[in-house]
Amino acid sequence: MLILLVDDEAELVSTLAERLAFRGIEAHWVTSAEEALQQVSKRHFDVAVLDVKIPRISGLTLKKLLEEKDPRLKFIFLTGHGSEEDFMIGSAEAGEAYYLIKPVNLDLLIEKLQEIIKT
Question: Which domain holds residue 24?
Fold first, then answer.
């Protein structure tokens, strides 16, 4: 399983990638939408884990752009803003059912990654 983590908080995504590596999951991380688009142009990732609030572009918009580059890519969103209900409404517009609230529970993230890979 190859994961792309996208969040403007470098410390968060680098630590998350390291923790996933300890569990045997390869994760690359970037801190901008532009970097995410470049990475997906270079290789296939199984899942992209996107922050909802990325500077200059929303996570939901980034999802659509990444899907154009790789229609097989699956997504999980992270949000630290607003209520779960607010996020569910927004994510429903993008057809996304997978989301997690920050701070991220690693076991729950791994569970969702495994779930989404099976779909």
Answer: 2-52+59-104
Q: How far apart are CA 44 and CA 4, in angstroms?
A: 10
Number of other CB atoms surrounding residue 98 within 10 Å: 17
Residue 119 lies in a domain: no
What would the pLDDT profile of 14-71 be if each residue is shown by its tens digit?
A: 999 999 999 999 999 999 999 999 999 999 999 999 998 888 888 889 999 999 999 9
Q: Are the beta carbons of 7 and 76 closer than 8 angstroms?
A: no
The count of other CB atoms within 10 Å of the CB of residue 86 is 12
State the DSSP H helix or E strand holding residue 115, giving kind and residue range, or none if neither.
helix 106-118
- Provide the whole-model pTM: 0.89
**What is the tally of structural domains in the chain?**
1
- For the chain, what's the residue count? 119
CA distance 112 to 98: 7
